[in-house]
Give the backbone structure.
Amino acid sequence: MAFDDRARGLLFERLDEALGGDAADTLMGYLPPVGWADVATKTDLALLEARLENRMSALENRIDGRMSALENRIDGRMSALEARVEAGFPALEAGFERALRQAVLALVVVMIAAVGAAVSITQLLTG
């Protein structure tokens, strides 16, 4: 037998006749608003929970896999960058040494010229 609004109305009328309006309202309040087939059971909820846990677990595994792949890509790129920087150090060091030698040589030349000028001025003044 299908339970529809008509059947519920008839049941309410019979309950009202037998028990009175308040008791009929109370009993009707305990009935689901739809058929029992539409009411979720504890088993239904447990199955739903298990499905959701499986889906969440699968999603977590996919995210973990993608994060690991991303970490590996970043590690690879960082290693390549580190190798390039390390490979550039000898050339940078050689360039720095060259520039330092040139600066020291220029300083020595200026100092020799200054000493020579000082000696010449001293000879002119004393002599």
Q: What stands out?
A: The helical segments are 5-19, 21-29, 42-126.
